[in-house]
Amino acid sequence: MGGGSTAGEVLASLVARGQSLAVAESLTGGLVAGELTAVPGASRVFRGSVTAYATELKHELLGVDAALLAAHGAVHADVARQMATGVRRVLGADWGIATTGVAGPDPQDGQPVGTVFVAAEGPDGAGSVRRLTLDGDRHRIRRSSVGAVIELLLSELTGNAPAKDTEQHGGN
C-alpha cells in the first residue's frame, strides 16, 4: 500500500495501527473518498463515506448541532469537527476526516470563496481542525481541500500535527 502518495501513507499508517477511517464531505463531494479508495488495499481500513452536501444533512446524518448550523452556517471550524466526529460514530471508525467550505462561484454563509475547514478526529480526543484560505477556481479549491484533509490526517497519525485550529493560506 502506498506508492509514495499521501493517501497511501495514511492508509499504510492506519493498517499498521489496526485502525479504520471514515470520511464526511461537503464541498469535495466524494473526492476525498475517491482519492483514498484509488489506493490498492484501501478496503483494509476504509469504512466508507458520507457526502452531506446539503446543510440539513450535516445535522440529520452526522449529528452536527442544529443551533451551530443556524448561527454560523455550514462553513465553520466547529461544523468540520462535528462532521468528523459524527462520521466516526455513524460508520464505526477509529478516525474521521471532514471537509466543509466554499468552492464557488459565490460566497456562502457569509464566507468568501476559498474558505475551507478540514478536520481530523480520532480515538482518545486526538484531532484538529485547519482553516484554509485557498485561491483559484472551483476545481482547484476542491482539489486543494482533498490534499489538505489527507495531509492533516497524516500529520495526526505521525505525530507531526501543528497546533490545533491553525490557518493555512494558498492553494496547490
Structural features:
172 residues, alpha/beta, Maf protein, 21% strand
Sequence-ordered SSE layout with sheet pairings:
Elements (H helix, E strand, L loop, with lengths): L5 H12 L3 E5 L5 H7 L8 E6 L3 H8 L3 H7 L4 H15 L3 E7 L13 E7 L5 E7 L4 H21 L7 E4 L3
Parallel strand pairs: 1-2, 1-3, 5-6
Antiparallel strand pairs: 3-4, 4-5
Describe the overall structure:
The model is unreliable at 163-168 (pLDDT under 50). Helix content is 41%, strand content 21%. The protein has 6 helices and 6 strands; from the N terminus they run αβαβαααβββαβ. Helix 1 packs parallel to helix 6. Strands 2-1-3-4-5-6 form a 6-stranded mixed sheet, with helices on both faces. The chain is α/β, with parallel strands linked by helices. It has a single domain (6-169), classed as CinA-like (Maf protein).
Quick description:
The chain has 172 residues and is an alpha/beta fold. It contains 6 helices and 6 strands. A 6-stranded mixed beta sheet has the order 2-1-3-4-5-6, sandwiched between helices.
Predict the CATH topology.
Maf protein
The biggest beta sheet, please? 6 strands, mixed
Proportion of residues in β-strands: 15-25%
**Low-confidence region ranges:** 163-168
Global structural class = alpha/beta
Number of domains: 1
Tell me which CATH architecture applies here: Alpha-Beta Complex
Spatial extent as radius of gyration: 15 Å
Give the strand order, joined by hyphens, for the main sheet: 2-1-3-4-5-6
- The CATH first-level class comes to Alpha Beta
H/E element sequence: HEHEHHHEEEHE
CATH superfamily: CinA-like
Please report the distance between the alpha carbons of the first and last residues. 24 Å
